[in-house]
Write a structure and sequence with these properties.
It is globular and about 35 Å long. With about 150 residues, the chain is an alpha/beta fold. It has 3 helices and 7 strands, in the order E-H-E-H-E-E-E-E-H-E. It comes from Vibrio caribbeanicus. This is DNA polymerase III subunit chi.
Length: about 150
Amino acid sequence: MANATFYIIKPDSPQSNAVGFGDYVLFLARHFASQGAKVYLNCHDKSHAEQIAETFWQAEHHHFIAHNLVGEGPKYGTKVEIGYQAVKPSWNRQIVINLAENETTFANKFAEVVDFVPCEEKAKQLARERYKIYRQAGYQLQTIEIEHS
């Protein structure tokens, strides 16, 4: 059975701003990749995907993780692949970290979906809609409050 985990971002957490959130995405991708998973990051669009890739490049050397944008680099060579709605991930990805606001059609290609509940009310409502879609699709759902600092 497929699983979807929603990470709840608290207003006073370091992840509530763009830099802290980017660092947390890097942390999650590194965590899953270190466990042997092939991870796909689903972004809003090409510009957002490039921005996330840049966050990965800016990581301190001991936090760096090999990654590539869809269509760049070796086809199956990195544990982390970054893309967006208009491109298809490599076939061998087990986990998707969804960074797009209103996109779930990709999810059935993955055994695990990671999503977020942001602080801002409009984004929170979009997360609720994604949650409903995953539930209707038969995903096993869970929520986790972020405690990482």
